[in-house]
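queue> pop job 88
queue> type: inverse folding (structure -> sequence)
queue> payload:
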């Protein structure tokens, strides 16, 4: 009886099969990678609103604490708000920071800082309520020691969303509303 001795054959991938798999992986990566780097619009909007609320709250609290005026100016090129102390008076009992708190008195940080920046998410565009682009005459919001505030109405564009920003004149809180097209 003849017996056939068949050895198990190994199946290898052909070059064509490997190339097809690499092309599919490349196309998938080309579609997925750009989306990973971008934040969803909802996250950008929430970040922007949170930073604006923080800037307005800090400016209003600083004005009440010092009894003076505090200005929150928009730097549209730097995409940030800058809070600056108006210095029009300090409440009784107020004293400048002690030397051991010198690090906190440096510009941009600490409770006693004369100025502080609040950065906005990249890609945020600003316009005045008339639709004009914001140039060198950056709009600013003023907060008073009495708790009142004043400032213009601005339009904010984040992605495809448009929002209106104003300040509540009695409380100094930001009023942010979505605009429909």
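queue> result:
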């Amino acid at each position: 009886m003849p017996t056939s001795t068949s050895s198990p054959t190994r199946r290898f991938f052909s070059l064509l099969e490997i190339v097809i798999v690499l092309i599919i992986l490349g196309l998938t990566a080309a579609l997925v990678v750009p989306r990973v780097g971008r934040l969803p619009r909802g996250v950008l909007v929430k970040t922007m609103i949170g930073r604006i609320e923080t800037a307005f709250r800090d400016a209003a609290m600083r004005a009440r604490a010092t009894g003076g005026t505090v200005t929150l100016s928009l730097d549209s090129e730097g995409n940030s708000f800058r809070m600056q102390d108006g210095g029009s008076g300090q409440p009784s009992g107020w004293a400048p920071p002690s030397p051991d708190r010198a690090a906190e008195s440096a510009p941009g940080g600490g409770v006693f800082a004369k100025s502080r920046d609040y950065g906005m998410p990249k890609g945020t565009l600003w316009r005045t309520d008339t639709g004009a682009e914001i140039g060198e005459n950056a709009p600013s919001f003023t907060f008073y020691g009495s708790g009142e505030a004043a400032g213009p109405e601005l339009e904010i564009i984040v992605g495809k969303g448009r929002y209106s920003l104003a300040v509540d004149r009695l409380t100094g809180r930001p009023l942010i509303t979505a605009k429909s097209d």
